[in-house]
Amino acid sequence: MSVAKSRIAALAALAAVTLPAASLAGATAAQAAPVRAVPGYQTWQADVEQAVAPVIPWLQNRLGKGVEKPAIVLDIDNTALETYYHAGRANGPVLNVARWAEEHGVAVLFVTARTSSASARQQLEDAGYPVDAVCTRDHGESKGEGKARCREELTGDGYTITANIGNRSTDFEGGYFEKGFKLPDYNGQLS
Ligand SMILES: [Mg+2]
Questions:
Q1: What is the tens place of the pLDDT at every residue in 56-110?
Q2: How far apart are CA 55 and CA 71, in angstroms?
Q3: Longest dimension (CA), the chain
Q4: Ligand 1 centre from 26 Cα, in Å?
Q5: How far is the CA of 139 from the centre of ligand 1 (A)?
Q6: Which is the CATH superfamily of the domain at 52-191?
Q7: pTM above 0.85, yes or no
């Protein structure tokens, strides 16, 4: 066998060894995809970090252009608070955004599908959030309707909702915000 031929034979042997492993890894990933499990805390936090990273640069941009009564809107469950992973605890990357907003004259508003404003405000304050307003859903409203109505009312109060941060599609229905930042809900599994 020539040197070139033996090299090809060696490569073929190598491919024979490595290819099944590669296709096995592919098959495992393909099989894992349809399994709808909520990921572990570290994965969720990494996904949240990624979603939230562009918020402060966006707010800086908007503040630089001069916005009337600037505000951010935060969803509560699995956005401001780690409801699924640690009930009542602040979601660190979102809390950082809220604190930055407060320090820069941006109002921090909460819009939630919850129906009790007083208990929501208490939980948020206990978790360390600055709270300028909490708007809750009325009985009989869908989540999307209630949240859109809240943003409309807050806009009516003179706020410019520059950033709307939530983890469900219902957090973004109906307008009344400049830019949405969506955290994961893993196919609707996080409320
Ligand atoms: Mg939520």
A1: 999 999 999 999 999 999 999 999 999 999 999 999 999 999 999 999 999 999 9
A2: 12
A3: 84
A4: 32
A5: 18
A6: HAD superfamily/HAD-like (3.40.50.1000)
A7: no
CB of 177 within 8 A of CB of 55? no
Phi, psi of 61 (to 5 degrees): -60, -45
The DSSP-derived string for 11-35 is: HHHHHHHHHHHHHHHHHHHHHHTT-
Give the Å distance between the CA of 74 and the centre of ligand 1.
Answer: 9
CA of 166 to the centre of ligand 1 (A): 6
Kindly list the domain boundaries of the chain, sorted by start residue. Answer: 1-34, 52-191
- Residues 110-153 pLDDT 10s: 999 999 999 999 999 999 999 999 999 999 999 999 999 999 99
**φ, ψ dihedrals at 163, nearest 5°:** -135, 135
* Nearest to 100, CA basis, from 50, 53, 139, 33: 53
Torsion of Cα atoms, 123 then 116 then 155 then 50, to 10°: 40
CA of 11 to the centre of ligand 1 (A): 52
